[in-house]
């Protein structure tokens, strides 16, 4: 591996430690570093960086993400455009998606250079908004797509359909549509189940539903889930991987399907998913 895309958390203060690591690996391994245009100004002159132009379809071997889970989610579009796997170097609190740390980075990179790693693909969900029968917005989510009532203090009504067959109607604060990767994030906080990340499935978790009988549900990845939003006094928000992406209006339909695209992660250690659950989420303790 020679071509590395670099993404650093925008608000991380101690960047000098990252720059020293990047300078060292450039000297030791003669790798090429590509950075986003908006981050190029941050790098000192001693680090040779090239601007990452995704429109030119650059040949990227690996994406190094210095940050927490949120920064890794921001790297999704780089991974989709380049088909390169992500290595997360945790600078945050939980770091559930990260495989390495700053202290272990040199060892991790040596394993990558020597091809001692596995590639683990993760499914994405496609989120399409239809307004008056026409497509108004679409995007891909690695963790989740969330419909949230936004500024209104009142509940909203969401009618859920599977393959155009009516499932249920719920008055709630919103709905989380999650991938297996996102099953340990917002969906879990809403009472949703934990799914192994290699699974192919869709999780629908209502947020604070008015009726206790409304529970999260798991659907097959091949199915199409439609969420029809009504009784809005003010526009709601569609959030994609934690970012407000599109305002939802009365009678809008949000269609959730599995995406053809996927994002891959580099796996270096022998830690199982269940060990990560025990260590990060204190499962069973």
Describe what this molecule looks like in 3D.
There is one protein chain. With 285 residues, the chain is α/β, with parallel strands linked by helices. The chain has 2 domains: 128 residues, Probable inorganic polyphosphate/atp-NAD kinase, domain 1 (Rossmann fold, 3-Layer(aba) Sandwich), CATH 3.40.50.10330; 137 residues, Sandwich (Tumour Suppressor Smad4). Helix content is 17%, strand content 41%. The chain contains 6 helices and 18 strands. The strands form 3 sheets. A 6-stranded parallel β-sheet has the order 3-2-1-4-5-6. A 6-stranded antiparallel β-sheet has the order 8-7-18-15-10-11. Strands 14-13-12-9-16-17 form a 6-stranded antiparallel β-sheet, with no helix packed on it. The chain is elongated. It starts with a strand and ends in a 5-residue tail after the last helix.
The total number of structural domains is 2
Q: What's the architecture of the largest domain, going by CATH?
A: Sandwich
* CATH superfamily descriptor of the largest domain: Probable inorganic polyphosphate/atp-NAD kinase, domain 2
Q: What is the helix content?
A: 10-25%
Q: Which residues sit in consecutive blocks of at least 5 with pLDDT less than 50?
A: none
Largest sheet: 6 strands, parallel
Rg over CA atoms: 20 Å
The first-level CATH class of the largest domain is given as Mainly Beta
Number of strands: 18
The share of residues in extended strands comes to: 35-45%
């Amino acid at each position: 591996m020679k071509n590395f895309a670099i993404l650093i958390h925008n608000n991380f203060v101690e960047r000098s430690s990252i720059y020293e690591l990047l300078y060292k690996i450039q000297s030791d391994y003669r790798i090429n570093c590509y950075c986003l245009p908006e981050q190029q100004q941050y790098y000192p002159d001693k680090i040779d960086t090239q601007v990452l132009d995704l429109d030119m379809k650059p040949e990227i071997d690996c994406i190094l993400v210095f940050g927490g889970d949120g920064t890794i989610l921001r790297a999704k579009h780089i991974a989709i455009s380049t088909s390169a796997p992500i290595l997360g170097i945790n600078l945050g609190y939980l770091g559930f998606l990260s495989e390495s740390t700053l202290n272990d980075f040199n060892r991790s990179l040596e394993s990558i250079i020597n091809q001692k790693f596995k590639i683990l693909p993760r499914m994405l969900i496609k989120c399409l908004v239809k307004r008056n029968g026409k497509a108004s917005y679409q995007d891909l989510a690695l963790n989740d797509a969330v419909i949230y009532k936004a500024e209104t203090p009142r509940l909203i009504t969401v009618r859920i359909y599977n393959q155009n067959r009516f499932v249920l109607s719920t008055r709630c604060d919103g709905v989380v549509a999650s991938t297996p990767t996102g099953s340990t994030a917002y969906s879990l906080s809403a009472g949703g189940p934990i799914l192994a990340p290699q699974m192919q499935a869709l999780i629908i978790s209502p947020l604070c539903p008015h009726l206790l009988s409304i529970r999260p549900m798991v659907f097959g990845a091949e199915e199409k889930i439609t969420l029809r939003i009504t009784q809005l006094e003010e526009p709601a928000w569609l959030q994609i991987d934690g970012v407000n992406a599109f305002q939802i209006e009365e009678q809008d339909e949000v269609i959730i399907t599995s995406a053809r695209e996927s994002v891959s992660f580099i796996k270096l250690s022998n830690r199982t998913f269940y060990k990560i659950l025990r260590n990060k989420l204190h499962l069973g303790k």
